[in-house]
Amino acid sequence: MKPLLLISLLIIAALSITSCGTRGQQAEEATAAEAVTEDVHLHYVQIAVTGMTCEGCENTVKGAIEKVAGVHSASATHADAYALAGYAAGAPDTAALRQAIAGAGYTVTGMKFIGHDLPKKE
Questions:
Q1: Which CATH class is domain 2-18+42-115?
Q2: Which of 3, 33, 71, 107 has the most C-beta neighbours closer than 10 Å?
Q3: What's the pLDDT tens digit per position in 82-91?
Q4: Residues 57, 78 contacting (CB under 8 angstroms)
Q5: pTM check: above 0.85
Q6: Distance between alpha carbon 112 and the CA centroid of its chain, in Å?
Q7: How much is the average pLDDT of 8-35?
Q8: What pLDDT does residue 7 have?
Q9: Are 97 and 111 in contact (CB under 8 A)?
């Protein structure tokens, strides 16, 4: 069931590609590499991100995270002010994640390793 939630998040993000008027950046198109297969067992880090105001911002943050070595999947939500990075083995390079997000124009205020479980909406 958890892989279905992650796939749903990726599909929603891919369908909501827009540009952010406040940032003036266009989101990159979703690629086939974003698809997560059920045979890949991912671990997750939840990243608190400030500055996201729209779906375009979400896509910009997601794209920045996906460029970090070792990241297999990413998603972001401006409403909840966080992003998720899925990785297969070892711990992700948190400095690289922070740098990638900062380079996209946003601020990381915290990170939390959440293991194999995706965070649940309250």
A1: alpha beta
A2: 71
A3: 999 998 877 6
A4: yes
A5: no
A6: 13
A7: 41
A8: 52
A9: yes
DSSP string, the chain: -HHHHHHHHHHHHHHT--EETTTTEEPPPP-GGG---TTS--EEEEEEEE---SHHHHHHHHHHHHTSTTEEEEEEETTTTEEEEEESSS---HHHHHHHHHHTT-EEEEEEEEETSPPPP-
Query: How is the chain split into domains, by residue range?
Result: 2-18+42-115
Question: Token digits for 32?
Answer: 């086939």
Query: Any bridge partners for residue 84, and if so which?
Result: 46, 75
- Please give the single-letter amino acid code of residue 32: A
Give the distance, in angstroms, between the CA of residue 72 and the centroid of all CA atoms in the same chain.
Answer: 10
User: What is the Cα–Cα distance from 117 to 25, expressed in whole angstroms?
Assistant: 32
